[in-house]
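ugh finaly. both done.
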Amino acid sequence: MLLQPAHSGMLATKTALPVLKEVLVPRERLIHSLNGALSRKLTFISAPAGYGKSTLISQWVHQCGAQAAWVSLDENDNDIVRFWRYVIQALCQDGDGPSADRTAPLIREMPGLSVNLAVDALINELHRTSAEIVLVLDDVHLVTNPAIHSSLSYFIDNMPGNVHLLLSSRVDPPFPTVKWLAQGDAVRLAARDLEFNAAEIGAFYRNTAQVELSKRQLQILSSKLEGWAAGLQLVSLTLPFEDELDRYISDLNSSHLHIRDFLFEEVFNRLSADEQEFTTQTSVLPQMNASACNAVTGRSDGQSMLERLQANNLFLIPLDAHRAWYRYHHLFADFLQNLMKKRDAEGWKRCHRKAGVWAAERGAMEQAAQHAFAAGDFGLAELRIRDQIQGKVEQGEFSTLTRWFDQFPDEFPLSSDMRLLRAFIQVVTGQTERAEAELDKMERRELPAAQGEEAEKLRSGLLFIRSNLLFTSGSFGKWFAFKSAIPDDDILTPEPIFYNFNYNQSKPFVRLTDLGLRGGLSEDMERIGHLFTGVLQSHGWQDSLIHLYVVQSLCEGYYEWNRLEDSETLIHRLESISRVGEIPGLFVPNRMTQALVHAARGQWAAAQDTIGDALDHLPNTTDPHWRRYLWAMRTRLYVMEGKAREAKKSLADLSISAKDKPSFNRYFEYATLAKVLGAQKKEPEALRILEQLLPLSRRENCVMATAEILCLQAVFSHAAGYLKQARRFLHDALEIGEANGYVRCFTDAGPAMDRLLRQYEALQPQAEEPSRIARKAISGAYIAALLASFSQADTGEARPENARSEANPPESFTSGELEILRWVRQGASNKEIAGALSLSEGTVKVYLSRLYGKLGVSSRTQALLAAEALDLLEE
């Protein structure tokens, strides 16, 4: 079934290759031109409707020998996330596209990836394949979003030589193409190239109408129709009925517009009344099968009618090989729709309502919404949109939601919860002024009049959206004023879409997301974060995802500030909430942060156990990038511990190499690769990876990643003997670090960073080289604080592994932990302990990790010694 989505909300028909039609007139000269263009980057075919663009391209891709991917574009594809999802789906259509196992997951990851990252990742995967690929984007003129034009231009500039892009449009491409033409990278076919010449016109009529036209008649037709394919087909439908061909051909008006209207009218009038009614009513359907036609027309013979129209060559285009699904040619659909709206406006709306009901019954809610809007039934449109908002938000198709909300007229009384959702979409898409105006209006007009449960829901929604504004625009004042007006004992009721909005679908740490300010840290944000989470807890939102994500972001920030106790307090708070384990975007960052805290204390076994248990916890159905992050963290821990051999072995799970062109959506993995290469004394290879990652990180304005990359560049450049470059990289890292109070970014780079900082400190009073005079000076106090952090007891190098944490007195150990200790004292293995206590081995590992953390140790032997010193196991 063509309405069945290939991915949630995605239609398979849009990326299906068109059915190859019977070749009525072989167009060898054009096929030859397209074959010649295959060695270039780009072909763009621009011609008005009806010039046979799609037919020509379909003929060509079926015989060109390259792997073909096709996207049939429409007005709905002006959502940039949706656009690129369909491009990726087309390239992976049969599961054997370019690195399909790595490329297809981008469809699911895109809500959490910027489009730039997704396009970069797609380009890199295309580089990996040697297959010759043709990507066709049909009806590009329907895509008017400038952001899509820009990203498509970027894609063309950077796509590999084995990929050829063909754009089909009614107008010239919406971005400059001169540079590609000038460089010989593009071929352009215009309307005049697609025109049928006299010989082709003669062949066309012999094959379609079985009419042999004279040379003079062919010349007249060629002159009047100017090779217009649709015009030729329209004339062919009337020629067999004309006794006086000369007069008929001579009477054709020379204007394409007049010819089109005249000929369509002629064709339509020759249909039976039954066929006229059927075609006008079904013209509301963008694509149709017998069931859809029957639903709209109230008939039962939809299949036979479709077959009859197809047999008569009546501008009906098959969409699948089984000829169950069809669409009208765009020109014929336009004619029929205009005719019906003029003759029967109420019938037009009625047909759209029926089509909407049929689509909704089959789960095609997006089509159902479009039919409701077309019928002018805004109440029904609101219901249809309500059914889809959760899915669209999860998929990141915010432009689609914006377009839908903008279709409601100002006078339509949109419900308050839908207005809240509209404001939320405006916040997410950066329309902060519109969102502020909407919220202010609702607070002034609607909130004072609301009562009971309605008032609770309204306050809940307003607080949630103002909270998102707080973390995207810094509008703390209005948030605090609104929060202060809510009584402390007023328990808020979150709407499911607000409560379940997932802020992290693809990042290894929450600090890398927009909610985590992409790594930006400040005392103000710490204060606001605590106020914010306190408010949510006091009003019953402690399990809401926005609360949990803010807590995790604070936890990661504390680790970066080297406040390990504070970080671990929040780690354990989240760990105790069962919901965290169901959300990979929370669970994986939480477990990796815990592992880093263990590593910072020199508790290497506990750190690795934490990652191992997290890997055991993740179900096999979890998106693969979460497992890759845990593998990468395991590898990083080996590097930090100085176990280069184990790190190299662990790296194999990531399936990446120094020869790759890294994409930023896999920054964490490629930075891990650089760390391993550096540990193997392969600094040039590590620097090549980092050199490619740095501009991508800066483009994404990712403070956290940029600082780490610069630190690694500094260390590896210095090791390779590039002393000036090392100093420059270190200075840039220190600028970011001082602005945000970073510590662990530097200490986790190891002893080499300690030495590099001491050299930098010694040279600091000297003037910078002339080209760097404009650089901001780094304060001596910040450098001194960093150097001190390398010798503090909480760093892995300086702290002995058997050192006990005085912050954990005996009473802080649970009975379960003490029971585990008793079994350890008896020499029982993890498996034996698990069996005796009816636990999983993973749970036993977690208990041991916590014990190691509380005791300040990293092995069983050390744990027993520490427990004996504390008299924990006295009977």
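ok and the 2nd:
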Amino acid sequence: MKFGLRLRGGLLATLIMFGAPVVAPVGAVFVSSSALAQTVQSISVEGNRRVEVETIRSYFKPGPGGRLDQASIDDGLKALIETGLFQDVKINRGPGGNIIVSVVENPVIGRIAFEGNKKIKDEQLTAEVQSKARGTFSRAMVQSDTLRIAEIYRRSGRYDVRVTPEIIEQPNNRVDLIFTIDEGAKTSVKSIEFIGNNAFSSYRLRDVIKTHESNLLSWLSSGDIYDPDRVEADRDLIRRFYLKHGFADVQVVAALTEYDPEKKGFLVTFKIDEGQQYRVGSVEFRTSIANFDANVMRSYSRVSVGSLYNVESVEKSVEEMQIEASRRGYAFAVVRPGGDRNFEAHSVSVVFNIDEGPRTYIERINIRGNTRTRDYVIRREFDISEGDAYNRALVDRAERRLKNLDYFKTVKITTEPGSSSDRVVLIVDLEEKSTGDFSVSGGYSTTDGALAEVSISERNLLGRGLYAKAAVTYGQYARGYSLSFVEPYLLDYRVALGLDLYQRTQLSNSFISYGTKTLGFSPRLGFSLREDLALQVRYSVYQQEITLPSYLADCNNNLGSSAFNPSPAFAASQTPPIDLSSTNGLGCYANGEASLPVRKELAGGKTLTSAIGYSLNYNTLDNNKNPTDGLLVDFRQDFAGVGGDVTYLKTAVDAKYYQSLVSDLVGLVHLQGGVLTKIGNNELRMLDQFQMGPNLVRGFAPNGIGPRDLNPFGTQDALGGTKYWGASLELQMPFWFLPKEVGLKGAVYADAGGLYDYQGPTTWALTNELTTTKNSNCIPSTINPSSAGTCTGLVFDNGNVVRSSVGVGLIWASPFGPLRFDYAVPITKGKYDRVQEFRFGGGTSF
């Protein structure tokens, strides 16, 4: 018995002896709150210089039961290390069970520098790294910054980059951090291939994706730079393209990338499983909502029987139907599309199921990332607000509108649970981008000659969503300036108010003998009726005058004048005939003479035009810059006579239809026409007539077709007409032997059209007003009969013939801007038309 007790006592003593340094003293001091304070004081700190002792002690917190046990000590040690303030942290036991925390503080960064970087500026790299001057030095952070810098260079296409951090020790525990960068050569995409594509050629698919092959002009863009995120996004673009063209089963299996050391670039290969192409076999509408007729949604469907199955059309139909159901009082209605494939008939039976969705409301709309754009500019793009029923279609529409603003790099709208099960919070994450542009543009065309423009614009003025632009143009034959301002939401309605102030000077050139000066102001209102239909109403007021060299308006046909300059008809009727080429005061026709309507405009001085008008624009193009499918129609009417000096009604329509054909060929049908109608008793001016040339039928000079003055001694000016029509058929084709990225394609076309029915001034009677104007006197028609070239009568060719031509064109979507070269040969023309077989135009911004 005694032996047993001794054994137990010896074991207890042994446990106490080995356990005392860890448990006994520490556990004993946390019996009461006063003892706890005493224990905290028992933590001593060594090696700290900048960090306060109490700050380090605060990381050691009592565990369960108020005891500072081993777990609490371990947690404090980890927390201190994670602060990044220390190179090393050690925990030791001192006399009496005290805790000694020994630290070695990280140095302070004196400065951060970058060496060897030429392609990326110091400011951009400084913003990207986590290490900051006057901050704490951390080797882990430096390693992370090294990887981050390398990633930035890889994103810009330089995969051979090498980044070496260098640490230079300075006094007072400070260091300088130097990142030495070997940027390496640009790593681009050398080849893009497609496997499994049978319906569309590789040439066509290269136009769908954003990644491009490297070429001689790649230095002007960044599309050839290898970016894994962009390649991944291209997979979705290819898939969406196939789904739009009826391939409902398409899969882009993989996007394989491989670095080729010999070519020093990446080879990208997309593997595609196209599947079958489907057409719409039937369209049905079903609903589980009581007292709701699903067939009322038929008019909102963009899917028709027999057409190619188009996922985009299905999605737009769902959006329109869901919004319409909400308008009819079914705020929680959800439209779910379905489709049953018939593999033998290659058709899809589309079913739109309209059901009652969960009764969910929007609790809040939280906007994040808009550092510059005001909140209300973003919120007004939503057709829903806090407290409304949650409608996914309206949320998707808002996201699309925000992206179309072009204010942000990225836009993403997600949902989070609200304060209850029937509440959601919309999270709008944005990343701002630069919205200001400074542009210096240059170009040349056979019509306007050399031309230069300097402009400055801002799409998001003051972060309020306003648009403003100022531009100055100076060219060989055209000069002027313009100021524009647009408020896209007038009085918080989705109505755009635009204001334009402009001044233009058109100088005389080889196509017209006269110049014009125009100063105008035009307010306008724009309405978006649908996504593909827009309406604009406008008011225009402008002052216009003609300028003319004096020698083209120096004839005097007044017999009573001492400086009598007879008309050609009068001179020829004399015996002997008068020699108009002499210099005895009778030779005004020898150096040419402007046409009667031109001289009459000159004598009339400045003319004020005040007009109201509207435009309807219907646009279903798949791409506004490089369309391959869709319809674009522009219908315009303007009524002049709301004050001012002239009255007329001008109507014009312009329609273009694009259709993809076989082997990447694109067909274009272009129709246009216009009518100028006289209103009231005011005479139509020559300047109000339609003037046509290569804009109607290629192969003719500007102002080269239509009614023309027949005076053989004059400038034979084009007079214009009140009616015109035009039709064009064009076939655009790529050059398959050239890389897609070069942007070259050819065109063959046939044009036809006509301009006729001039209704401007044809006579100029003698009046007191005219006799007081120098060198503009005219004799009465009883003395000098109306004939070609006289002041009192105009003889002209009315041009009532059909003009036609055939030609070829070269279209270049160059880095310098869109360029086009045309060579057209007229087939039929008027006797006095002017031909210009070659035409060139283009420009750029840099």
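summary for the 2nd one i guess: The first strand starts at residue 43 and ends at 46.
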